[in-house]
């Protein structure tokens, strides 16, 4: 058996793994970066990029179908499913090629192809033929779709997002299980592309939304496009000659059976750490089998092992995986003591229409932090000027501020341009701005961001640090 000794071994070449590799190389050239599957990040292959390509096609179809609002008549709209999926795959493969080019740039002696598993806290066995003894190890193995057992009844018609993007044509119908980020984005996109969609959830959750007012608004809005039961009662799933038959209790408390071409499981993801024989590393594990680790250093206990990215099952977001990889790689490669790295203000965006953005602390976290001494500012986009001009006037934004200090704490939004407003709010939270300081920033007219100003003014008045709101504030411009 071949044996090798290195300063740093990194398991996984996704976003976190490549970030760890770059940071570790700042300190040492004695590195092994190990990949057990195909090169290419989750984001590029099956995540954010192909899903946004499908969403872009859906938005084009929806805009054409909605043009009557402006007196513009597009005529009969024809959706070429093969052309839609062909572009998704071509552009996806282009994004993946960029990742492959990056990996090809790594020195050959650093790259190891094969499945790694722990022999102990320092030694890894790769494909039963190579033993790597590493001073430090970074676990960046990513995650995979988690599929509840009862969905297996769909048999060959059970798909996950990874499979969807490889279809040659759009399906006729899909039952989507899981109204989380993936389910909402793909379910709505398919619906807007002419696919018959019904969505099933458990427990009432809608995406990452924690604010009940926004959750109810979002649930009502999505149901205007396709049936979404966030707390469904599914009685039976069966593979039939026609597809997948799903028996469920509908909103009238009546049992119904509907048949779909596919069942899409969007029921979350689970860490790939369970493939590593992690029990041999002598680490303390949580109930999911993931090592307990420090949020700021990514170190597992007091060991020489670090964990980063989707492998933690905590924040499956590219920018978080990138930050974690950088921190873990820096600590693994350096000979100095382990140090805390920069963790940014939480920011998450769901690319539905309207979009969803969550920033900073959730409303429950604000309540805990402030012991109930906080206020909520709110604005509806139904009457907001710019939103009405462009025909995207649906949505609700709620912003949270601390009594006494006036500190901005967090926000949730379901509305137009949430991807952009979410960034403004995240920057404000990270700079620890007060509501008054945020209101002192410039706001142009007419823009959707004026809705943010209205929410902040509402919050300022409730915090008793600003004047009462004036209806139809004309110095702001009409319809602001």
Uncertain stretches: none
Let me know the CATH homologous superfamily of the largest domain. FAD/NAD(P)-binding domain
Rounded Rg: 24 Å
Indicate the CATH class of the largest domain. Answer: Alpha Beta
The average pLDDT value, as a whole number, equals 93
* Helical content (DSSP H or I, runs of 4+): 25-40%
- Spatial gap, N to C terminus: 71 Å
Number of strands: 22
- Gross morphology is globular
Architecture per CATH nomenclature, i.e. the level-2 architecture of the largest domain: 3-Layer(bba) Sandwich
Largest sheet: 7 strands, mixed
Number of domains: 3
What fraction of residues sit in β-strands? 15-25%
Number of helices: 13
Structural class: alpha/beta
What would the CATH topology of the largest domain be? FAD/NAD(P)-binding domain
């Amino acid at each position: 058996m071949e044996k090798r000794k290195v300063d740093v071994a990194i398991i996984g070449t996704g976003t976190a793994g490549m970030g760890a590799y770059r940071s570790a190389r700042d300190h040492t050239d004695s590195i092994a970066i190990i990949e057990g599957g195909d090169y290419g990040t989750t984001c590029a292959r099956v995540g954010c990029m192909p899903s946004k390509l499908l969403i872009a096609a859906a938005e084009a179809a929806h805009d054409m179908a909605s043009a009557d609002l402006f007196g513009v008549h597009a005529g009969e709209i024809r959706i070429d499913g093969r052309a839609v999926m062909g572009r998704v795959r071509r552009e996806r493969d282009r994004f993946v090629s960029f990742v492959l080019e990056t990996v090809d740039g790594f020195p050959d002696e650093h790259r190891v192809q094969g499945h790694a598993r722990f022999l102990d806290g320092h030694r890894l066995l790769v494909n039963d033929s190579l033993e790597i003894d590493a001073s430090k190890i970074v676990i960046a193995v990513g995650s995979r779709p988690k599929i509840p057992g009862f969905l297996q009844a769909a048999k060959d018609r059970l798909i996950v997002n990874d499979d969807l993007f490889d279809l040659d044509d759009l399906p006729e119908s899909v039952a989507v299980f899981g109204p989380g980020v993936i389910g909402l984005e793909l379910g709505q996109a398919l619906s807007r592309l002419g696919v018959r969609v019904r969505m099933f959830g458990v427990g009432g959750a809608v995406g990452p939304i924690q604010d009940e007012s926004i959750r109810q608004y979002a649930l009502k809005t999505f149901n205007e496009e396709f049936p979404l039961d966030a707390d469904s009662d599914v009685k039976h799933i069966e593979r039939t000659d026609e597809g997948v038959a799903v028996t469920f209790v509908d909103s009238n408390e009546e049992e119904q059976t509907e048949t779909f071409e596919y069942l899409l499981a969007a029921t979350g993801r689970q860490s790939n750490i369970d493939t590593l024989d992690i029990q041999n590393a002598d680490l303390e594990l949580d109930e999911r089998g993931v090592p307990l680790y420090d949020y700021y250093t990514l170190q597992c206990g007091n060991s020489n092992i670090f964990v980063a990215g989707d492998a933690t099952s905590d924040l499956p977001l590219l920018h978080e995986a990138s930050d974690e990889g950088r921190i873990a790689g820096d600590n693994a490669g350096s000979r100095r003591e382990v140090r805390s790295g920069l963790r940014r203000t939480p920011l998450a965006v769901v690319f539905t229409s309207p979009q969803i953005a969550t920033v900073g602390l959730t409303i429950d976290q604000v309540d805990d932090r402030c012991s109930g001494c906080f206020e909520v500012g709110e604005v509806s986009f139904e009457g907001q000027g710019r939103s009405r001009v462009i025909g995207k006037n649906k949505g609700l934004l709620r912003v949270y501020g601390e009594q006494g200090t006036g500190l901005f704490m967090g926000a949730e939004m379901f509305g137009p341009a949430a991807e952009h407003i979410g960034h403004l709010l995240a920057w404000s939270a990270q700079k620890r701005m007060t509501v008054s300081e945020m209101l002192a920033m410039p706001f142009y007219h007419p823009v959707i961001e004026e809705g943010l100003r209205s929410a902040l003014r509402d919050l300022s008045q409730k915090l008793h640090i600003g004047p009462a709101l004036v209806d139809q504030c004309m110095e702001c411009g009409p319809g602001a």
